[in-house]
Each structure stands twice: as C-alpha cells, then as structure tokens.
Amino acid sequence: METSAQTTTDKTKNPVAKFEEFFSTKYKDTVFEALEKYPDQRSALVDYVELEMFDPDLADLLIEKPEEVIKAASKAIQNIDPLRKNAELHIRFENVRNNIPLRYLRSKYIGKFVSVDGIVRKTDEIRPRILKAIFECRSCMRLHEVQQKSNLITEPALCQECGGRSFRILQEESEFLDTQSTKVQEPLENLSGGEQPRQINVVLEDDLVDTVTPGDVVRITGTMKTVRDEKTKRFKNYIYGNYISALEQEFEELQISPEDEEQIKDLASNPDVYNKIINSTAPSIKGYREVKEAIALQLFGGSAKELEDKTRIRGDIHILIVGDPGIGKSQMLKYVSKLAPRGIYTSGKGTSGVGLTAAAVRDEFGGWSLEAGALVLGDKGNVCVDELDKMRPEDRSAIHEALEQQTISIAKAGIMATLNSRCSVLAAANPKFGRFDRYKSIAEQINLPSTILSRFDLTFVVEDKPDAEKDNALASHILNIHRDTSIPYEIDPELLRKYIAYARREIRPHLTNEAMDVLREFYVGMRGGASDEDSPVPITARQLEALVRLAEASARIRLGDEVTADDAKRAVSLQEKCLKQVGYDPETGKVDIDKVEGRTPKSDRDKIRVVQEIIKELEEEYGGRAPTNILITEMRDRYNMSQEKVEDLIRQLKRKGIIYEPQQGYLRVA
C-alpha cells in the first residue's frame, strides 16, 4: 500500500522538479525577467520545441494532462524565485506540435492541449470572474475564504465558529479575474465548395483578454474543455486559451520553400511572363484578354502607402465586369476566389449588408458584440461579389466605405468600431434589360448608383456579339473541355498562387521619372482636350490614382522594383480601352467621365438646359402652361431631337422636381 502511495507522490512531484531544472538551465533569463516585472507582466512564454528537446516525456504529459502540468510549471517558478514573491505567473506555451484543424476537433480531444488556426469572428465584452470569494457569517461576522471553480458561487458549508449556515459575500474583499469569450472560425482557404465553416468558442483570461479583434487570423493554443448548457442540458466544447499568436495575415497558408523561390525567379526572368500569367487566369474561359489582364494585375495589386499625416492610399485594384448573360463572369469570379489567397466569393441576392460588413450580435449574457462579415474576413485578400446589381440598395451602400477607405465603421447597438477591409473587390453585374445597348450610358443599364461605379478602377463591358471565327474557336474550346475535362495550364495554379504571394510579400515597386512622365502626359492630354467650356470632363484624379496602382501591379508581375515607362503604358492602354468602352458619348464623339461613373453626361445636361428654356418660352406664349406636344415639335424642328429623347428628358426633369404637370398635356417649371 505504501509503495503505491509513494509512486503517486513521486509522479506529482516529478513535473515540478523537472520544470525547476528546465527553468534553471534553459529559461533562467526569461523567468527572472518575468519575475522582476511581476505583477505588471503576468506571463512567461515557453517554446514547446525546447521543452520537447529537454524532456520528451514532460512535453507528452503536457499534451495529455495540460492542467496538471501547467500548475506544476507555475509551482516550479515559485520554488526557484529568489525573492520569494509567491508570484502566480501564467506559463504560456508557443509552437505546440498538436495542431488540429477545427473540423477534426472532436470529443477525443477533451482535456487535451491543442492548437487551432482560425479567423476571429467576434469578441464579447470583458467580464470579471470570481476566483477567491470572501464570505462573512451573518451571525458571528467571522470571515471565510473559498476558492471558486466556476461562475456558480460555492458558499462555505457552515461557520467554523458558530455553526451558522447564513453567509454574505464581500465583493470588495474577494478576488476577481478578467475573462472574455471569442468565437473562432476555421480559415476559408481550408474549405471546399459548399462546406459550412466550423466554429468554436475560446475563453481568454487575465492578460490574454483584449488581444484579438474580429478579422484577425490567429493560432490559439489551449486546453479543450466541455461544459453542460443549463437550458438544453447538452454539452458544448470550448477552448480554454493558454497562448495566442497572430498568423501572418497575408497568404498565411502559403509556405514558400527555397525550391519554389527558385522556380518563381526562373519564371519571372522569362520575357513572356505577362502572357503566361494572363493565359493562366481562368484558362477554362476562352477570350476576354483585356479582362484577364486586368484580373491578373488585380491579383498582384499595387502598393498601399501610409502618408506622414496618417492618410492611407489604397493599393488594391477594384474591377467591375458588366456583361451579357452566359459569357462566364461568375466562372471568372469563382476562379479568382479559389486562386487568390484569402479569396471569398459571395453572390448579390444571398448577401445582406451586415453579411458583407459586420453584424451586431447578442452574446449569451445579453450584451452586444461584433461578428465580422465577408469584407472584413477577406482583409488583405480578394472578395468577389457576383450579381452586384441584384443586391438591395440598402445592402449595396454597405460597400461604399470599404471600396475607397478600406475600413468598415460600425455604430450600432452601442458599439462604435472601425474594422479593416483592405481587400480587392472583383464584382460582376448584368445589364438591366438582359442585354447591352451600345447607345445608352452604363448608368441607364446597370442598376448601380454613380457613387459605387466611380470607385471601381476599371469597368469592363463584355458583349456577346456573333462572330463566325471567334464562335468557331469558342465552340471547339468548350467541346474539347467537355470531352477530356483537362485544361492546358501554362503555369500550374499552385505555383501561380505562390508566385502571387511572393510578389505581394517581397516586392514594393516605386515610380521612375519615365513612368511618371507617361502617366502625366496621358492625364493632362485627356483633360487638355476638354479645356473649352462646352467639352465633357474626360478623366478625374481618381483615374490617375488607378493608373498608378495598375502600373505598380504590372511591375510586380515581373518582380521588378521599379515601375518603368512600359508598365505605365500598359496601365494607360488598359484604362483607355475601359474608358472608350464605357465612357464614349456617341453624341459628342468624346470620352465623358460622367458617363463612365453613371452621372448625367455633358450632352444630356446641355439638352436638359435647352428643354427648360423652351418650356419657359412656351409658358410666356401660352399663359403660364407649356403644351407637351408643341414642346416636342419645337425640339424636333430646332435641335433634331427625337420624341423618345424629349419624353425621356421630361421624365428626368419631373423626377428631379424641376418641372411639374399642372394638368394632363401641360408642363410648368417649378
């Protein structure tokens, strides 16, 4: 009997002794530094790998019985403390080898020490948890100290002095600890289509509280526990956090080996690297070279700049593709969301405003907390929004701030917060009337306000026009894919992902004087043609900033540190094609930026002014009311304007409240 008791005491003493030796030899400086700073610093960080090298059995015991081992480590620190402060330091372990994907975190891991990777979805408010409760006997006033294990307060059984059973808790004398609950969701890169991401609650205590915010990508190490829900009587797993490390936010899952780096540099030195990358972008879709070139540039992105006055200029490129049905827009978006690290795909009809930005959610205690949406989870990645025109207007307005300022400001349910959404947005929309009409402005044909249209760096109009030669090539391409389902890649998608990750991580190109001259010449030249009073405004400073981003992305594609004149020319040619497609006003024969961004073009503004003038003339002639039929005749005779156009302008003026109809067939200026 005695021997078995002796062995158990040896076992319990053993970890303490081992940790004393470990801290005295390997971690002397770290531990003593932490003890000096105690109680301001309440933790000491230990590398699990070093513990494993020192004593593999102790490291295994930590995985199997974490609570026991972590207590032993804290005790060991108190034992070797020369100052005998009785410091209750938390021992935090990093680089724990037991990394489990969230979806495989099942009941067999309960009570084990695990580490999981994920995105922080929401954080609850910080609340106190009682550690040591001081009770006063109501009869004899004697004080009793009781250690508390959970939020349900345990009272003393009876008073040791008078045997009384009635007690009062003294909150001021009791000891409390900060605690916070967060929800972590598995990384989006690990999901295949249609899978619902798994989530788990994580409890953080003491100095770990307030170290994460929604949208952070983290690795959380801790003990997996389970708790019984009082309402449902079911058990629910959670992780009791021991240590949190932020994973590298950009492209965190892409490990680039020296061999990969060799391949990447080899590919970058190829003079045909541009064509190879463009051809490897959505290779299952034939044609649309300009759109693919723009998407390739978007994947590489420009450089974000932080100015001295703390203003941030975005480096991410936003693209809008407007096109006829059946040309593969959604396919391109899906491809980009899979290729881009941290790519998120969402469709307009099934997306709410809070689903894009952040939702205020009630926590289990009735308080409010923020839950991150798609644009926050896609921070430093790509967010693909399909069917942007089908979204409800109030939901669409949620992306205004995210597109330009790249932040999301929330003020709801008493929460004021600003979250980062530094992502590139690739959006697709269909024309309002099914197919595209060349002679109407984009604004008339897409159900999108000008404020959103103006925030896209490039807007492409993709038409489905019959063309015998192209149709023949497309038909062959589609039929071949259906026959053998293989796609000839010029660059393997996995290598391309690594190439993009490497370029975005390592390359920060800067503008050369030659590139600046090319961009300046284009900008000034385009605006110079509009110097006379009657010309439309062809381009604004927003397009110039877009050109800089495109030129930087072009330099990144070839891993260049300088933006050359060729990069600038490539950006200019792409921007010109977009402006001509979208902003060409057939009536003036010039590019009008208001037409691109969905405002009233210059030619229409002139006509509106003319219509108002003629209505005023007719009012004088016909006793204060202008007959509509005579207005239409006058406009046809004087300005060769069709009846449909005049009726359209009248509708616009009525909508804006500039004119009204006092009686059927008559108009007046308001």
Structural commentary:
This protein is an alpha/beta fold. It contains 24 helices and 28 strands. It has a five-stranded mixed barrel. A five-stranded parallel β-sheet has the order 14-17-20-13-21. β18 (407-412) and β19 form a beta hairpin. α3 (48-54) crosses α4, α6 crosses α17 and α7 (273-279) packs across α8. It starts with a helix and ends with a strand. The model is unreliable at 1-13, 249-253 and 530-536 (pLDDT under 50).
Defining key terms:
single chain, 670 residues, alpha/beta, five-stranded mixed β-barrel, five-stranded parallel sheet, globular
Give the fraction of residues assigned to helices: 25-40%
User: Count the strands?
Assistant: 28
Q: Mean pLDDT, rounded to whole units?
A: 77
Span of the ends, CA to CA: 105 Å
Q: What is the approximate shape?
A: globular
Q: Low-confidence runs (pLDDT<50, min 5 residues)?
A: 1-13, 249-253, 530-536
Spatial arrangement of strands, main beta sheet? 3-7-8-10-9
Major sheet description: 5 strands, mixed, barrel
Give the C-alpha Rg: 33 Å
- Given the helix and strand composition, which structural class is it? alpha/beta
Strand content: 15-25%
Count every helix, treating DSSP H or I runs of 4 or more residues as helices.
24
